[in-house]
Amino acid sequence: MRLLDLDRVDRMRLLQFVCSFAWADLEVRPEERAFVKRLVRRLGLDEREEKQVEGWLEVPPPIEAVDPMDIPAEHKKTFLAAIDGVIAADGEVQPEERESLRLLEQLLR
Questions:
Q1: Average pLDDT for residues 12-18, to the nearest whole number?
Q2: Which domains can be identified in the chain, with CATH numbers?
């Protein structure tokens, strides 16, 4: 599954998850911001969508917006890879980040 195979709704859903994981340690570091910005470019978001993502980097997405059950089965690996990328972006995987990813992986099984 490639990123560009995601439709617009799933692209934004992916970025909600990525941004929420960037906040897992209660701080979005510059490297995580850079990762998200690269992902935004790769996904070809429009200006309105980019602004929404920038907002999620300032204030995390609402918890009810990141329901693992909303991740389409065919995109699970793509979501997990992107989330793993953002939590590793700063070179330091915090315990709460690793635990959150582990829990998501279990939920998606």
A1: 96
A2: 3-108 (1.10.3680)
